[in-house]
Amino acid sequence: MQAEVARQLQELHARVCKAIADPKRLLIINELRDRELSVGDLSEALNLNQSNTSQHLAVLRERGIVTSHRVGTNVYYALRSQKVIQAVDLLREFLVEDLAEQGRLSGATSH
């Protein structure tokens, strides 16, 4: 039974990682960092058309990364948990460190 739970968790983990692997979705997550926004506001902030923004938001919603609610004709989105931001920020820190290390290594090998 525990093996089945572990397998399901790994599959969910991979699906969430796949959802946030898209650069536009990362931009959306960052825009939603501290506030909820409508599809129109997100589209404008990211210079995307509303249809494209809605498609990306649908993927994030299906994966449980964002929540939505309707106010009149507008649909507003927010992050379901700030842990998403923590995970994205931690991965970004790792990448920055990796790039810095590569810079030092390439600088050291060019001398």
Automatic annotation (TrEMBL):
Annotated HTH arsR-type domain residues: 5-99
Keywords from the named record: DNA-binding, Transcription, Transcription regulation
Taxonomic source organism: Intrasporangium calvum (strain ATCC 23552 / DSM 43043 / JCM 3097 / NBRC 12989 / NCIMB 10167 / NRRL B-3866 / 7 KIP)
CDD domains: HTH_ARSR
Full protein name: Transcriptional regulator, ArsR family
Keyword Transcription: yes
Record's keyword annotation contains Lipid biosynthesis: no
Gene3D superfamilies: Winged helix-like DNA-binding domain superfamily/Winged helix DNA-binding domain
InterPro entries: ArsR-like_HTH, HTH_ArsR_DNA-bd_dom, HTH_MetalResp_TranReg, WH-like_DNA-bd_sf, WH_DNA-bd_sf
GO molecular function: DNA binding; DNA-binding transcription factor activity
